[in-house]
Amino acid sequence: MAAEIKEGGILDGMLRDRYRSWDSGLGARIENGMADFRELERWALDAPEPQVLSGRQEKYESLLNSYL
Predict the structure, then answer these.
(1) In the predicted structure, residue 56 carries a pLDDT above the cut 90
(2) Does the pLDDT of residue 41 top 90, yes or no?
(3) Overall average pLDDT of the 33-47 stretch
(4) 57-67 and 10-18 helices, crossing angle to 10°
(5) Using CA atoms, how far apart are residues 15 and 10, in angstroms rounded to an integer?
(6) What confidence score (pLDDT) does residue 55 get?
(7) Could you give the C-alpha distances from 24 to 3, 5, 15, 27, 57, in angstroms and in order?
(8) Partner of 26 at 20 to 30 A CA spacing, among 11, 33, 34, 44?
(9) How far apart are CA 13 and CA 56, in angstroms?
(10) What residues contact residue 5 under an 8 Å CB cut-off, 6+ apart?
């Protein structure tokens, strides 16, 4: 079943969408070890209030259950 899920590619796209903020900007700098605490502090103080976005857990669970 795991191979079928992997070969289907749907999960890969969903995960890529979920974590796309780590692919550029500050997220990429953090991931690559290039951001320091001063940069993070400046970002936190200057950034607007974060938007709460769904993690789409139910969608992931539904996808996995469709393979069962």
Answers:
(1) no
(2) yes
(3) 95
(4) 170
(5) 9
(6) 76
(7) 30, 27, 16, 6, 24
(8) 11
(9) 13
(10) 11, 64, 67
Share of the chain above pLDDT 70, in %: 100
How far is the C-alpha of 28 from the C-alpha of 31, rounded, in Å? 5
Name residue 61's amino acid. E
Instruction: For residue range 7-28, list pLDDT tens digits in order.
Output: 888 888 888 888 898 999 999 9
What is the distance between the alpha carbons of residues 40 and 32, in angstroms, rounded to a whole number?
14
SS3 31: helix
- Provide CB contacts within 8 A for 14, sequence distance 6+: 56, 59, 60, 63
- List the alpha helices (DSSP H) in 1-68: 2-8, 10-18, 25-31, 37-46, 57-67
Using the structure block, give the residue that is written with the tokens 């290039």. 34
